[in-house]
Structure formats: C-alpha cells, structure tokens
Amino acid sequence: MWSLKLSDMTKIGVLISGSGSNLQSIIEAIKVGEIGAEIAVVISNDETAYGLTRATDNGIPVKVIKHGDYAERQEFDKELVRVLRECEVELVVLAGFMRVVGTVLLEAFPDRVINIHPAILPAFPGTDGQAQAFVYGVKLAGCTVHFVDEKIDHGPIIIQAAVPVLSGDSESDLKARILRCEHKIFPYAIALYCSGKLHIDGRRVIIDGVDDVLLAQQSLISCPGLN
Ligand code: GRF
Question: Which of 116, 127, 190 most suits a substitution to test ligand 1, by most atoms within 8 Å of the C-beta?
Fold first, then answer.
C-alpha cells in the first residue's frame, strides 16, 4: 500500500474526445480551489471536440493527436506520453476519452491514470454504459471513477455514485442525470488524489480522513430533487 501524493500544485493532463462537460467541471473545481491542481494540457484525439474550445476559453494549452494518423496503437500512445511528459503531467485524467489506453501509457504513468465511466462498475463496462443500463431495466444507475489498468473499465474503484431510474425516463433523461453526477464525483476524486488521500491496496482504494457515512450521504446516492 502506498500513498499517491503528488506535488502541491499537481499538473494534470486531461484527455478528451467530445463535449468536455467533465473537463468543464474540473476547470470550475480548480477555479474555486476545490482541487489543488492545474491543467497543464488538454489532449483530444478528435479535432472537432468541443472540449478543446472549453480549454482554450480558459487559457489551457491544447493538443490534437489524431489516432487515425498512427498505424499502430502503440505509436499513438507513445505520442500521448511524449506530450504529457513535455507538459510535466503528473496525473492523467480520461474525461470522455473514447480510446482504449495501452501499456505504453500505463507504464509511463503507473497508478496515475484515472477514468470516469457512466455506469456502476463492474456492471455495463465498455461504450454506452448508460444505454446498456437503461435497456437492462435497472432501477439504480450511476457512475464510477476508477484507476485505469490494462483491462477495460476494470481498475481499482475510487468512488461511485448512484441515481434512480424513473419509470417515465427516456434514455437521454437517464444519461443527463448520470452526467450531473459525474460532474460531482470526478472533481471530488481528483481532489482526493491530488491531496494525497488515496491509497491503493490491491483492488481496494483506501481514502484517508474521509467520513464514509458522510461520503455516502453526499455522493454515493444522489437524489436531490431526483435531478
Ligand atoms: C461521459 O458520460 C463519460 O462518463 C463518458 O463519456 C462522456 C463524456 O462526456 N466516458 P463529456 O465529454 O465529459 O461531456
């Protein structure tokens, strides 16, 4: 078991592929001092990702690395690592990054890559976790922040949040409710990481100095007004 304490102002690299609403939630949390970090770079594999605009609007350096430009996934990963290192990134945050990251990146940043998944893992891994949950007919859906390992949506879980599925919900209602939850727990998990409160013990992530009951009340079941 070891501490994941980083420097006082952790340099984060955020990888995105799309809208970047999770990126925005991280930017806002940093602005109000909830996360002791700075975003050193936002990297997208898609040049049309709106998250790039969100980043530049906030003065954050951006880089587009198109996966299609690389014949091998390893070469794509190597370029990601090169840019992340160039920007002195300490923590890699996958915020809607629609590529599977491989060992090249994971070995360059051991226990320093985290992801948000829009389902309560280990249920509904892979793409469209919300749609999978909706079609399955679950009564509780949610999201998971976890460390990334070599298997898809599999690494040690940092925090999870649940939301109800209501009878009148459309798939997009559920998706929106889960996304609002993502915007709460992802910045929170990053803040815990950056303040050195997370420890990995096998498959378990131990959180220092956090009241479990309070944590459960605040974020594990999120039904304020069923939003
Ligand atoms: C989120 O639902 C995230 O969980 C999933 O992709 C979506 C990204 O949304 N991996 P955004 O780009 O952060 O708005």
Answer: 116
Closest ligand 1 atom to residue 51 Cα is 12
Please give the model's pTM, rounded to 2 decimal places: 0.92
Hunting for tokens 């799309």 — which residue is that? 18
Tell me the pLDDT of the chain (227 aa) as tens digits: 344 555 578 999 999 999 999 999 999 999 999 999 999 999 999 999 999 999 999 999 999 999 999 999 999 999 999 999 999 999 999 999 999 999 999 999 999 999 999 999 999 999 999 999 999 999 999 999 999 999 999 999 999 999 999 999 999 999 999 999 999 999 999 999 999 999 999 999 999 887 777 777 666 555 444 44
- Same CATH topology for 8-110 and 116-227: the answer is yes
Q: Assess contact for 112 and 88: CB atoms under 8 A.
A: no
The tokens for 188 are 């929170």
Q: Which CATH number applies to 8-110? A: 3.40.50.170
CATH number of 116-227: 3.40.50.170
Write out the two tokens for 219. 């974020």
